[in-house]
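batch_manifest entry 22 of 60
target: FAR1 domain-containing protein
source organism: Stylosanthes scabra
requested by: lab member K.T.
priority: normal
notes from requester: please return tokens only, no post-processing; we will run our own comparison against the previous entry in this batch. if the run fails, retry once and flag.
--- input ---
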Amino acid sequence: MTTGPDAYDETEQTDEFLCDVEEEYIPKVGMTFQAVAEVGLLYKEYAKRAGFSTKIRNSNRCKETKEVINQLITCNREGKWTSEAPSVEKTNPTCGANCPTRIYAHAIKMTRMWHISKVVLHHSHPCFPKQAQMLS
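--- output ---
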């Protein structure tokens, strides 16, 4: 193992950003809710305090009842897209930052409660909590 000024420290070389938010607002695997709207409200409040906006990436519905049975909510900068406009003309060239931040929740059939089963909190871009009032 190399030590000294030429040593490589893996913790300093990262392209991931983790937002500093009070513990009570951080979504966690295993949390349960009465309705899918409550899951969305928790994640929106977390996102607002962390300084990013969210979008519902995917929802699936029951074939018989048409009720939502699971939902994936992601950072608004999730995904990557290509534009046909030259990069000089783009108004927001970093919109799609391939951000992995997301929560996945699903309804438990027997209890009809909503359960968070996946949480990813690190971003591929910096967040700006002081500008949260501008986020929808």
